What we know:
Layout: H1 2-29, E1 40-42, E2 48-49, E3 52-58, E4 66-73, E5 78-79, E6 82-83, E7 88-95, E8 97-101, E9 106-109, E10 114-117, E11 123-126, E12 133-140, E13 148-149, H2 155-170
Antiparallel strand pairs: 1-3, 2-5, 3-4, 4-12, 6-13, 7-10, 7-12, 8-9, 8-11
Amino acid sequence: MQKIVSLALVGVLSCANLGIAKEAEIQKTQEIVKSGSLGGFKGDSKIFSGDVHVKMLFKSDSYRPFGGALVRFEKGARTAWHTHPAGQTLLVTQGSIYTGTKGGIAQIAKPGDVVLCPPDVEHWHGAGLNEIGEHIALTHKKNGKNVTWLELLSDEEYKTYVQAAQKLSKE
């Protein structure tokens, strides 16, 4: 009887060790960041106009030189002018995202569209005058920095860009 119990105990310990090994292997190759675990914040009026909510999705690390956030812009909300030293990618998830560059180019991106912003392009993005916009922002880092904030986009500039983007989208 003692031999049977000993063999059973060895079997249980072997299975437990196998489970630990598999768990360690999974942790080495993948990680799940639970929704909401990194928090979020309301957009600061120094760098956003209107009602903006940012939910952090994941942080950059040694093998991924970019972080991710879900950004929701209420009607009329937008970023200040800014640049990214290593670029930015926006995946539009809801509504419309309006974007413009200092060169005067205005565009509208819809759900499923991707906005690709190269390094150091001075731009802004946000919702339309009468609609929300939401995107996942993948912001790359260079030398530990991911954004340089500039001046706020004035209401007049914003309206001009939105109207130009709407006009171009109808053509």
